[in-house]
Design brief:
With 160 residues, this protein is mainly α. The protein contains six helices and five strands; from the N terminus they run E-H-H-E-H-H-E-H-E-E-H. The chain has two domains: 91 residues; 41 residues, no CATH class. A hairpin with a 2-residue loop joins strand 4 and strand 5.
């Protein structure tokens, strides 16, 4: 006998592209790829996502790079200023650059406006640490130590 009960309508399957840190790091802020991601998100034809752990890694990496470049630029500016023939303080001619905090906020805004951020749950974080302790993939052994709890937490977030 045929089942004549009415089935609830199913939501359309929306393709999801979940990106890892290494993929997003390579993209400059003005890349056409960012525009494509924004267009996909705005059209609702697909989901572009990163896990919260990837967001944390991206911001930490961007912060280190920016602070390092800013330190080098400050040292170069001070060295150059010492060679000038004026007595005034050089701070009034320092180029207008973002503070490290402002730079990170700009990057976080770009990430959140462009991609969905999948939250890192307690369960995913704990499982990532457990997998590292037991050297279970995607965590791995590295000599006498284990590594990869963040990778495992990212993987568990994607599975959730």
């Amino acid at each position: 006998m045929a089942d004549l009960r009415r089935k609830p309508p199913q939501e359309p399957c929306v393709p999801t592209l979940i990106l890892d840190t290494c993929v997003v790091t390579a993209l400059p802020w003005n890349s056409t790829v960012w525009e494509m991601f924004r267009a996909v998100r705005a059209a609702g034809t697909g989901r572009i996502a990163i896990s919260e752990m990837v967001l944390i890694e991206l911001l930490a990496q961007r912060g280190r790079e920016y602070s390092s470049a800013l330190d080098k630029a400050t040292a170069a500016h001070q060295a150059l200023w010492k060679l000038q023939f004026v007595d005034m303080d050089a701070t009034h001619v320092w180029p207008a650059v973002y503070s490290p905090e402002d730079s990170l906020q700009k990057w976080e805004d770009i990430y959140r406006q462009t991609m969905e951020v999948l939250p890192l749950t307690r369960e995913a974080a704990v499982e990532g640490l457990r997998r590292e302790a037991h050297r279970l993939r995607p965590a791995r052994a590295s000599g006498k130590t284990a590594t990869g709890s963040r990778d495992a937490a990212i993987w568990m977030t994607v599975l959730e």
